[in-house]
Amino acid sequence: MIPHQYVDRRTGEIVTEKVFADRTIHWLYCPIKENAPLLFRALTGQRASSLFGYLNYENVLCSKLTSHSKFIKETGINLAECLDCPEKLSTPRALFERKISYQETRPMPDNKGAIVCPSDARVIVGSLKEMSALPVKGKLFDFEELVSTDKTDWLNAFYQGDFAIFRLTPEKYHYNHVPVSGVVVDYYDISGRYHSCNPGALAVELTPYSKNRRSLTIIDTSVPGGTGCGLVAMAEIAALMIGNIHQCYSDKAYDNPVPMNPGLFMAKGQPKSLFRPGGSTVVLLFQKGKISFAPDIVSNLNKTFIKSRLAVGLGRALVETDVDVRSLLAETKNP
């Protein structure tokens, strides 16, 4: 199978990703999808996704995932940054739902107009306007379907805007943080499938992000104390083995989480939600002309010498950058 590489933002190195369950995903999205479509549909449904999650994270791996496990060593999970002691992280679920000392280990830029990454993840960025003329249209996501065709106010607001896609892998810290400061003006869930976020599956399955189950939060940043980049949409997307997107915004560490309702002011960099368990995806949408993405992330996108499965599947250079939650994603053009 074709290797998948990305750029590590901290070091600038090109890294070959060890894709979890790679052979299983290839089997599911190639022979099964092509030759047994009804079985494929069943296997990407909620019941099968929950079963896969149990087998992988609640049962088979339980005896293997300890503080000195091969998995932790191979993936480089840093137990020292966790708030719980290693003994309490001896099960897969506890490990994937770990809390960290993010104020110290994931510092934020001081600039008020800075927009930060919502997750420890691998990111690609782009323009909805340019996407309409590129091979990624109809593959990564369909804008109208992602937001929902009946949400005309938000479709108009983000028309021809910019996007950022954050792909979490199973070893990542799985809390998502708020990328901007502002007031929640809408929050809604959309039902859907549970397609894999494996980079190979993304290139095979049409519009997985806009077909999967997802939660959308619309944030108005043009308020007192806000980041000042207009409206921002944050789509948290379920995937294979991810049955639950738990909303748990807190303005003080992880304490006393509150419901995600319109009128809630959220501070940039604070914990917002938790994927349970495994890896999944966050998509951010920005209004046209409001932000400028960090130059290093944009530069990495078009490096043709890096072997990316997204590039092979989509027919153009498209390279991910591995980023830290709360690190710089973009800046407001007119803060």
Mean pLDDT: 80
Beta strands, count: 16
Please tally the helical runs, counting DSSP H or I stretches of 4 or more residues: 13
Instruction: Indicate the overall shape.
Output: globular
* Low-pLDDT ranges: 26-55, 59-68, 133-138
Order of helices and strands: EEHHHHHHEEHHHEEEHHEEEEEEEHHEE
Helix content: 25-40%
Q: N- to C-terminal separation?
A: 46 Å
Number of separate domains: 1
From the structure above, extract its key features.
27% helix
Written account of the structure:
With 335 residues, the protein is an alpha+beta fold. The chain has one domain (5-332). 27% of the residues lie in helices and 23% in strands. The protein is built from 13 helices and 16 strands. The protein has helices spanning 22-35, 37-43, 46-60, 70-75, 92-96, 102-105, 128-131, 143-147, 152-157, 199-204, 208-211, 295-301, 309-314; strands at residues 5-8, 14-16, 114-116, 121-127, 162-167, 175-177, 182-190, 214-220, 231-237, 244-247, 265-266, 271-276, 281-286, 291-293, 321-323, 328-332. Strands 2-1-15-4-5-13-9-8-7-11 form a 10-stranded mixed β-sheet. It has a 3-stranded antiparallel β-sheet with strand order 3-16-14. Helix 1 (22-35) packs across helix 2. The longest helix has 15 residues, at 46-60. The model is unreliable at 26-55, 59-68 and 133-138 (pLDDT under 50).
